[in-house]
Amino acid sequence: MNAGDPNDHTPPQIAVGLLGTRQTRASVLAKGLGIRFTCSETCRLDTMLWIGRSTARALGIKLARTRTLVARVASSRTGVGAGRFRMHLRSWLAKRLRGGRPVTLTLEVIGHDANSNRTIGWYRVTMRGRTVRLR
């Protein structure tokens, strides 16, 4: 539908995956987590990476009650198609993750179209040894 169409009540469909096939823990800590996405229409994405309380405590981080934001990126796409971006972890977390301990992060993706119809997706990012996976 056209941007700003008052009859558009359908939220954008969004698919998210890792950028490339060879992301390792070392590359994520050095360059950031590479994410690719596709949108079914012109959309804006607000993407957040969270660490849970129990994981943070296991890493020796004192935090708030539930979870803590460790990376945030806003991106957009004009028209149907694919895009990509990198999420750079906060430095204090990157230092703690260098030890190789298994860790699970939560990726939250909120997609908006021109009429502010919204889609929210939750994904798990796991780092086990050298491998990084998005599910």
Question: Can you characterise this structure?
Answer:
By secondary structure, the chain is mainly beta. It has one domain (14-134): Immunoglobulin-like (Sandwich). Helices cover 15% and strands 48% of the residues. It has 3 helices and 8 strands. A 5-stranded antiparallel sheet has the order 4-3-6-7-8. A 3-stranded antiparallel sheet has the order 1-2-5. The radius of gyration is 16 Å and the shape is elongated. The relative contact order is 0.27. The mean pLDDT is 88.
Write a brief structural summary:
The protein contains 3 helices and 8 strands, in the order βαββαββαβββ. The protein has 135 residues and is mainly beta.
Helix content: 10-25%
Q: Give the CATH class.
A: Mainly Beta
Could you give me the name of the CATH homologous superfamily? Immunoglobulins
* Structural domains: how many: 1
Unreliably modeled segments: none
Report the CATH architecture.
Answer: Sandwich
Shape: elongated
Spatial arrangement of strands, main beta sheet: 4-3-6-7-8
Average pLDDT for all residues: 88
Distance between the termini: 30 Å
Rg over CA atoms, rounded to whole Å, is: 16 Å
- List the helices and strands in order: EHEEHEEHEEE
Structural class: mainly beta
Q: Count the helices. How many?
A: 3
CATH topology type: Immunoglobulin-like
How many beta-strand runs?
8
Strand share of the residues? over 45%
Oligomer: single chain
| Largest pleated sheet | 5 strands, antiparallel
